[in-house]
Known about the structure:
alpha+beta; 7-stranded mixed sheet; two-stranded antiparallel ribbon; 9 strands
Amino acid sequence: MNPTPDSLSTSDFLSAVPYPAVDILGVADRLSDDERARLQQIHEFLQSEIRPQVTDHWDREEFPFDLLGKLAEHGLGEIELSGTSRLFRGLVYAEITRADVSLSALVGIHNELIVGVINELGSEEQRAQWLDKLRRFEAIGAFALTEPEHGSDIAGGLSTTATRTDNGWIIDGAKRWIGAGTFADFAIVFSRDVADEQVKGFLVELDRDGVSTEKISGKLGLRIMQNADMRFEQVEIPAENLIPGAASFANTNEFLCSSRAWVGWQGAGIQLGIFDAARRYAITRQQFGRPLARFQLVQEQLSRILGNASASLSMMAQVAFQQEHGGLEMPHAALAKATTTRLARESAAAGRDLGGGNGVLSEHELAKLFADAEILFTYEGTYNINSLIVGRAVTGVSSFV
């Protein structure tokens, strides 16, 4: 006979029926034995050492620098250099998000957009200077693309400039919403070459004269991630700081496609975290003399959250298959990002509702997850923009101006 909340104490019940394998359809079963064991190790580390610590940092909008070393010890600074399958990497990103969305943003941007760009588009000198430090989180990079006046229209509207000089380049302009921008060692700054109008990527060390950063405070969610306004005023950099493989925006677009798919894994991962928190609350919270878990409407909400999470994981497994076989294109990534974050928003609302009055307090995680889901729904292309990318692909007609 299966234990019930009525037959055991709360602590004994949670021990007897721990967080179930939320991957109820067995997506992780497609991994090799070694990758599956490694994923379980990472899951246990994140749930035991990371998740219990982060809420206080979230409340204070502070970054937990002391956790970077632990993340590095478990290989989370070099996921994109690990030689593992795309499915494994995606499930790792989901597990990090399950523990905390802000840290998953840092780890994802670090791997997908910093390590990935330098490793594949950078020069030998740039790889030698930065990759080993990045793998160990001994250096942090920021991906500086979005601007104060250009978000969704950044490809055509980018206004930060790069001017060639006898000794190198001068970078001038502003960036906004740049993750880790307050403490990064360098930024990959996308600037328009005034000579040929091409958008190019440059490595800009943030201790150079003319660079200033300011933390963006008061965010609804992703409060641990330190987003920044950045200003580059006539910043001089040497010629070798141009990233040779990022000589046009088209060269970088492949990474933006992969990054959008990565947010799809975040959309799946946050739903695992929502299910964890909602299930625990339903089992431990007593009302009318019995646990909330015994009420039919509560079970329906838990089932809906689990269904959304399962649909998202299954979708992302197919995206990983496409990536593995070179078939992922921007409409696929946009559909995945839009769909999983839409379902995450629905799951977060169901979880917050299940928590009642306590659902608005970060200590029960449900409010924190609710707020973080809104950020996922918005960044890396808003839901509407990603939907229009898909719409253009399936109709052959662009609705963009």
